[in-house]
Write a structure and sequence with these properties.
By secondary structure, the protein is an alpha/beta fold. Helices cover 30% and strands 27% of the residues. The strands form 3 sheets. Strands 3, 4, 5, 6, 7, 14 and 15 form a 7-stranded mixed sheet that branches. A 6-stranded parallel sheet has the order 10-9-8-11-12-13, sandwiched between helices.
């Protein structure tokens, strides 16, 4: 089978397309999936440089998410069968024509949902719903600011927060990116390349922000914390800006605020029942048209390196996906 392989930790330049052996028959509790579409995330730009906390052995295939068709099932697998369309999430390795995966992680794809959309649901919407509902405990009527709102994770959070009944402030680096956020339900738009973020928050949300959903870190975290309302919650998602901010803890004390980490990937193992229920809800909303995942661009498997460069260049809004078949 064909696979995109990262053969050294030199970024996208190290990715090649090669023929490799197909996976062995699925073991107990596993299924083999014919991958149709794989989806990329910001973490893939880190992983191909050895800068992510999970460091797979070389060579490895990028892409943590995929959608495809069940090709074979192992012993004890009953909730999916050969021929079912499914999507899932793993540590890495989806940019290849077949993959073995724990059957428990496979989610059936509704008939009216495309492979391109399904492939990109798990990480961004799974993180968003877990982060907003279970970690930040966002409530209807509250104000939620999303930093890095136009990327895959941020745009999912904009949609979810709006669906959950919040007033949503989308923060991004260009008017073009903010236009996409507006189309997904954002109520207030802030271009943080055009002025002081703290002053813009004061002008547009004078009561303060109840939940900050931070995908970028860097210089934007502290002004957002200073803009929180009493009992505000600051959800740490990632550091797309490149720098991990150092937060003065007195800012949390003064507003009786909370700083919460959101590590959805680990929560899948720590809280599997909760996450399975969350994923069922997300897929239902997608099938009903209440969530509309945005696919930025589709690349062929042979162009996997350029797909990762698209994320490197911060040129994407929504998901970047790879058409494998």
């Amino acid at each position: 089978m064909k696979a995109a392989l990262c053969k050294s930790l030199d970024g996208p330049d190290a990715i090649v397309i090669e023929d490799i052996a197909a996976p062995l028959a699925p073991g107990k509790g596993e299924a083999t999936i014919r991958v149709h579409v794989a989806a990329l995330n910001f973490l893939d730009t880190l992983m191909v440089r050895g800068k992510y906390q999970h460091k797979p052995a070389l060579p490895f295939s990028p892409a943590t998410e995929f959608a495809g068709v069940v090709d074979a099932v192992g012993e004890g697998v009953t909730h999916v069968k050969v021929g079912d369309r499914v999507f899932s999430f793993g540590q890495t390795g989806a940019a290849r024509e077949k993959i073995n995966a724990p059957a428990a992680t496979l989610v059936p794809i509704p008939a009216n949902v495309s492979d391109e959309v399904a492939a990109g649901i798990a990480v961004t919407y799974g993180t968003g719903y877990y982060g907003l509902k279970d970690r930040a405990q966002l409530k209807a009527g509250e104000t939620c600011a999303v930093l890095g709102a136009s990327g895959g994770a941020g745009l999912a959070a904009v949609e979810l927060a709006k669906l959950m009944g919040a007033k949503v402030i989308a923060c991004a680096s260009s008017d073009e990116k903010l236009a996409v956020c507006k189309s997904r339900g954002a109520d207030i738009l802030i271009n943080y390349s055009k002025g002081d973020l703290r002053e813009q928050f004061k002008a547009l949300a004078p009561r303060g922000i109840d939940v900050v959903y931070d995908c970028v870190g860097g210089p934007f975290a502290e002004p957002a914390i200073r803009s929180m309302a009493w009992n505000g919650r600051f959800a740490v998602i990632g550091f797309a800006a490149g720098d991990i901010p150092k937060i003065p803890l007195n800012l949390l004390l003064l507003k009786s605020a909370s700083l919460v980490g959101v590590f959805w990937g680990a929560s899948m193992q720590q809280e599997p029942t909760l996450n399975a229920a969350n994923m069922r809800q997300i897929v239902t909303w997608v099938a009903e048209g209440k969530l509309k995942p945005h696919v930025h661009k589709v690349f062929p498997l042979g162009d996997t390196a350029n797909a990762i460069r698209e994320l490197d260049n911060r040129a994407s809004t929504g998901k970047v996906v790879i058409r494998v078949r």
